[in-house]
Amino acid sequence: MGSEKYKRCFEPLTIKGVTFKNRIVCTPHIHAWGSRGLVTAEQAAEYERIAAGGPAIVTLGNCAVNMKECSDEVSQIDLSQEPVLLGLNVLRERVNRWGCQISAQINYAGRNAWYPGSVFYAPSPIPSPGELERAAAEGRRPRVPIELTKEKIIEIEDLYIGGAIKLKRAGFNVIQLHCAHNNLIGQFFSPISNHRTDEYGCDTYENRTRFVMNILRGIRKACGNDLIIDIRMSGEDKLPNALTVDEAVEISKIMEPYCDIFTISNAFHMAPPSIAGKMSLGMYLPQIPLVDYTWKFKNALKKAKITFTTCVMDLDNAEKLL
Ligand SMILES: Cc1cc2nc3c(=O)[nH]c(=O)nc-3n(C[C@H](O)[C@H](O)[C@H](O)COP(=O)(O)O)c2cc1C
User: Fold this and answer.
1) 3-state SS assignment for residue 101
2) Of all residues in the chain, what percent carry a pLDDT higher than 90?
3) Distance 316 CA to ligand 1 centre (A)
């Protein structure tokens, strides 16, 4: 395909000895084919089909660190279960056979959890804006999350680290830590969801990032420096009194020494209906709507690679960005 015209798009890239055959990325998408946390045959076939389409990497969306207590989608892969290893290995092998890398997004939904039986923890007992709007529309009281104790925070940090270890054992060269869309890590970052007054509070960047930095240090200690760590980062929360792009960039600078890639996105998971249309999920937004603040990350970070996402709909735009 027009290899001269789209020279940069099809240029390979090597990070830590792992070759990405071009610059095309399939971003994380939660699909509907999982089964009670395990990988299904349909899921494996679908990911192989995506890999056959030619991207350099495909990322499994929204894998739960422990589905029993932090789940927000019925079809998530559950990284806490030992039997999931077999399915992850099959997925990895079927994607790799097309020269495509595979990654998985590690997540804990926190106050967004809703799956039946899910416990419902968050940095502070503040319902999400989406929950407030939905409760009002349904004429019920909003569900209020339980404030995390320090003991529980440490337990969850270990769950993230355990998830990364599982993926490494399944042969994944790349993992993605979900720091975007106001999931649990993002809930610690954002003043809209973190009103704590202890060392995990939002008053300083050191405190806001304590949770994620403990996770990153733990992953590096357990999995080594060769594992490629990709950060799914929100450029902004897109709500008043919430995470701004300048804050997100500062936070990213603190994480950068432990990471290799930043995949920039924006806004909320389970967004309030009033802002959902402005989120990064739509395919009907103008072309490359996140370009301005994705450049802010590119300019501020020293060495990490940046993945542009959201409506990079043609190779001309992609080539220009590269
Ligand atoms: C059905 C669907 C599921 C998605 N699931 C996730 C997810 O699990 N994790 C995530 O970070 N983003 C998720 N996204 C956002 C996408 O990764 C992507 O950023 C967005 O769809 C923009 O896609 P584009 O860059 O291909 O235009 C999802 C989007 C859609 C439409």
Assistant:
1) strand
2) 74
3) 21
